[in-house]
């Protein structure tokens, strides 16, 4: 069994055993964390930060979590809604006037958050580098027509979610999503999570490792998330080498380019599970958290090709809400037990070739500690 470092309350020892087993099997390096009532009960890590297994995964190692970032972006919107600065039932155009074209006058903020806005792709986008130009991506989204009548169907907004929510946040606050997140979420909580990573943190990043037998040309053919896709991806193919590049780290792509570890992911999301506060820091009211688990849409997702329940920013699975990222990272929150569980790793698994149950194994181990 691989040596696991950190701290784990005895009742949650199954989580430590689960991470050790994963590190002895599929994982190279990884971290797992559990928060209950906004306080840490598990904060563990182990393995290596590089494919050569020459650099240890440390307490402050960071990894790209891909679509697990969406949980952070959604939280920013819910904070603004709780403050009365953003109305989830208002048209997007109330904050972003240029958006009210091509049949999008009635796209509501809650449609954007619940993947029902009808804008799962950016028209005409062909190269990953184009994602680094915030203004042009948002201008393209403002100009294009929705793929379906907004609010009537869902289709996972793999990349556009971050631009749409992020531009709404920018119009309301005058700050980029990454800046707002840093100043209003990460800093108050002391959370080591970044949307747009500055160069001084580069040495701490565990680069993503492509699935076994594949190279860093491996691309997200299906949208990043916990389910496969049923249709062709019409946008640029994002490869592992793109997600590992310095340009990707510096950019603002708030659907997919967050960097953190299980501790920071669980700490931040435990705010919602714990009715608005974590570690004694309150970010929003108990009522302001409720949209995170209140159903907005239930039915087949046109992009994922699977039945989904979407809330205002999260996937809902039974009593839990959260979302995962391409390659394997995952966070889930249970507001009934006020528990949040996170798993962050560097070894990716190709879900087309192999089931990836790693995050679920950590979550199920955490539930065993509640009983």
Rg, please? Answer: 19 Å
- pLDDT under 50 segments (min length 5)? 222-232
User: Which strands sit side by side, in order, in the main sheet?
Assistant: 1-3-2-14-13-12-11
Structural class assignment: alpha+beta
Query: Hey, roughly how much beta strand do the residues contain?
Result: 15-25%
Give the overall silhouette: globular
What is the H/E string?
A: EHEEEHHHHHEHHEHEEHEEEEEEH
Count of DSSP E strands? 14
Which bin fits the share of residues in helices? 25-40%
Q: Ends: how far apart?
A: 26 Å
- Mean pLDDT across all amino acids: 95
Q: Report the major sheet.
A: 7 strands, antiparallel
User: With helices defined by DSSP (H or I, 4 residues minimum), what is the helix count?
Assistant: 11
Structure description:
- The chain has 371 residues and is α+β, with helices and mostly antiparallel strands.
- It contains eleven helices and 14 strands.
- The chain has helices at residues 13-23, 70-82, 109-113, 134-143, 160-173, 177-189, 240-243, 246-250, 262-273, 286-289, 358-368; strands spanning 4-8, 29-36, 39-47, 63-64, 194-195, 258-260, 277-278, 281-282, 297-301, 306-310, 315-317, 320-324, 330-334, 339-345.
- The strands form four sheets. A seven-stranded antiparallel sheet has the order 1-3-2-14-13-12-11. A three-stranded antiparallel sheet has the order 4-6-5. Strands 7-8 form a two-stranded antiparallel sheet.
- Strand 13 (330-334) and strand 14 (339-345) form a beta hairpin.
